[in-house]
TrEMBL record:
GO cellular component, one term: nucleus
Segments forming domain FCP1 homology: 171-331
Protein name: FCP1 homology domain-containing protein
NCBIfam families, sorted: HAD_IIID1 (TIGR02245)
Major location category of this protein: nucleus
Protein localization: Nucleus
UniProtKB keywords: Hydrolase, Nucleus
Listed GO MF terms: protein serine/threonine phosphatase activity
Gene3D superfamilies per the UniProt record, alphabetical: HAD superfamily/HAD-like, Phosphatidylinositol 3-kinase Catalytic Subunit, Chain A, domain 1
Gene Ontology annotations of biological process type: regulation of proteasome assembly
Lineage: Eukaryota, Metazoa, Ecdysozoa, Arthropoda, Chelicerata
PROSITE patterns named among the record's database cross-references: FCP1
Amino acid sequence: MNCCQRKKMSESSLPTFAVKWSGKEFPIEGLSDSTTLADLKQLLMEKTGVRVERQKIMGLKCKDRRSSKLIITKHKRRQNALPTEVSSRPAGDTDCLKDMGVKEKQKLMMIGSLEESIREAAKAPNPEEMPEVVNDLSMEEDIIAVADRPEFLDKIQKRVETIEIKEINAPREGKKLLVLDIDYTLFDHKSSAESAAELKRPFLHEFLASAYEDYDIVIWSATSMKWVDVKMKELGVTGHEKYKILFHLDSSAMISVWIPDKGLIDCKPLGVIWGKYPQYNRQNTIMFDDVSRNFIMNPQNGLKIKPFRDAHFTRDEDRELIQLARYLKCIARLDDFTKLRHRKWERYLDKYDK
């Protein structure tokens, strides 16, 4: 047995975990306690082809353990250390994975683009090759019928009874409610980029700060809570000084409804929130989503936002959030949103400006 083999055997191994990137999952196993973040990035480059300098592994924090100063007795016969203090900081490439608290079967998310993807993104798109945008829910009669179906209302009631909402900030008296989707509403989750900030919809923070003056804000995504939390942190929404988020909801708060000729559709029923927080209701709630079927149970409260795609090419022209901030400000003075037709929100602004 050579020296290297003896060293490898003497080192304890890290838990097996996985890294998700571009819709794929890469198992990571057999790493030792001495493995650094730089080592992991090198391994991921071999597995994914993404260069080390373009990788960002989200959510990793390095634990710093330090003891406070030693207390030495008069006779200097013993030294007593005060309890160890633990703090955390963003992980650096030279930090060991063992100090980052990676757990067995944990799934980390990596952001980073292949070189060919970056080169392709730099090219202007051919208009003839752009996909046609199709109305995802042109079935108003079905919407009206679905919203009052007792079996679907029962599903909502079960969600109200079973779901646990982790409140981030307390509701404020007298505020209306704004419910926001993430993907393609606040964030282009498909385009290639070196960081989430590059895919943030223009004027996101200005929009949220303006809305917060009149509305409590809820983030509701069709993904898992883990990714909701990560995205909000990476976009700089969590902990922002000019606005606060009431809470996050994920796919577990959604329900499935059956529509003739359309099949099974997952949606975001606002009744789940209203059942938990009765101060919010049809009269004072509005929901933005790029997919209108998500508010099929509450069509009167939904506003279909223009999807934010191809961030590299559209960010300079996208003014959707600026205009919607104005719309929210205009209607905030109203007592009843049910009298509005949100799909005509731009006409409402034009009329308001005259």
